[in-house]
Design goal:
It contains ten helices and 16 strands. By secondary structure, the protein is an alpha/beta fold. It starts with a strand and ends in a 15-residue tail after the last helix. The model has no long low-confidence stretch (mean pLDDT 95).
């Protein structure tokens, strides 16, 4: 079966990356691409690298144009997807790359986003450890099988959550004192013109932003790690996940390098700590724990749907240090969305996705 696909926000970075990956997917036909201010223009004017899709023209983003497809991807700014998802009830599968359907807590949405709150959908991070319906540990992919509505993750949020979930689930780290600093490429902020993201502003500089607990991905991380705690012997409320989160824009177009630390739980041995991450990701294709003593670079995951994790144990500081690299547009956004789509439809999970990066 070939599934017909519409992609909204197709002139932006996330929409363009969804299209790039879908263009090599044997089970889908990209039938419709939409935009707002760029409607009526050729897709190739905004995504000139997508040569196989150069025949497509951007249409208006309306429920009527998006309806009638088997799959709709919404790659819109936060707060804009909900107005369309409410009107797409007849579409068999809708995947939102924005934040509108990620959070389960209305109060967290109000505190960090504001505006209309929409129901949470199945969270699109298949490898994330979560508690099962009858207790015990499962992966989030079990909640994606047969899903009809999927919320793709925030790129920073999924990177940090995948970094720390094994330690939280195994009870070998203390989630009440997490510190994470992320080097991020400006493509994660979207394609709209923003003066602080101009090349002249970021080249030769590192620029922290959303400092002091204000970044919108914080409640998403707390929600994910609380779910991971339910996969282990204890249950931690999201309010018990305390995280100091500092992102820093650095002059690379793509990529996230997240360095996350947390206190070692009393009595946890070095082997128990490493075994927690090995058990969580040893059989995963797209999330890989590097050998002891190795840490990843963002260059190693460029263009790949891969999260590479380096784990160190700092006994002098009594903290676990996890360094994770992802391509924010692939594993952080579009790749996670398509991986989740494959699972939902019962297709091979790795279809159209690569573990291999591009170098140099």
């Amino acid at each position: 079966m070939t599934y017909s696909v519409a992609v909204s926000g197709a002139s932006g970075y996330a929409g363009g990356e969804i299209l790039r990956l879908l263009a090599n997917h044997p089970d889908v036909e990209i039938r419709t691409v939409t935009a707002h201010s760029n409607a009526g223009q050729k897709l190739s004017e905004h995504q000139p690298h997508l040569r196989s899709l150069a025949h497509l023209t951007l249409q208006d983003t309306t429920p009527e144009i998006l309806a009638g497809h088997d799959i709709v991807f919404l790659a819109l700014p936060h707060g804009q997807s909900g107005q369309y998802t409410d009107a797409l009830g007849e579409v068999p599968l809708v995947i939102d790359a924005g934040a509108d359907h990620r959070l389960t807590s209305r109060s967290a949405w109000d505190a960090f986003y504001g505006g209309a709150f929409h129901e949470p959908w199945a969270y699109g991070v298949p490898e994330l450890l979560v508690g099962g319906a009858s207790g015990g540990s499962v992966k989030q992919r079990e909640h994606l099988r047969g899903a009809t509505r999927i919320a793709a993750p925030g790129c920073n949020a999924s990177t940090v959550s995948l970094s720390l979930a094994p330690g939280v689930a195994a009870g070998v780290i203390d989630p009440s004192d997490i510190v994470t600093v992320l080097a991020v490429g400006p493509s994660g902020a979207g394609k709209s013109l923003k003066p602080h993201l101009l090349g002249s502003e970021i080249l030769g500089s590192a620029n922290p932003y959303a400092v002091g607990g204000t970044h919108r991905h914080i409640p998403e991380i707390r929600q994910a790690l609380a779910a991971a705690s339910r996969a282990g012997s204890g249950t931690v409320d999201p309010d018990g996940i305390r995280i100091s989160f500092t992102p820093v824009i650095v002059p690379m177009a793509r990529g996230i390098l997240a360095t996350s630390t947390a206190p070692i739980a009393p009595g946890a041995t070095d082997s128990q700590i490493r075994d927690a991450w090995q058990a969580a990701y040893g059989d995963e294709t797209f999330v890989q724990l590097l050998p002891e003593g190795s840490v990843p670079r963002t260059a190693d995951v460029l263009g790949a749907n891969t999260a590479l994790i380096g784990l160190a144990i700092d006994r002098a500081a009594n903290r676990v240090v996890v360094v994770t690299a992802v391509d924010n547009l692939v594993k952080g956004t579009a790749g996670a969305a398509i991986q989740s789509m494959n699972i939902a439809l019962g297709l091979t999970e790795t279809t159209a996705l690569s573990i291999n990066g591009v170098a140099p």
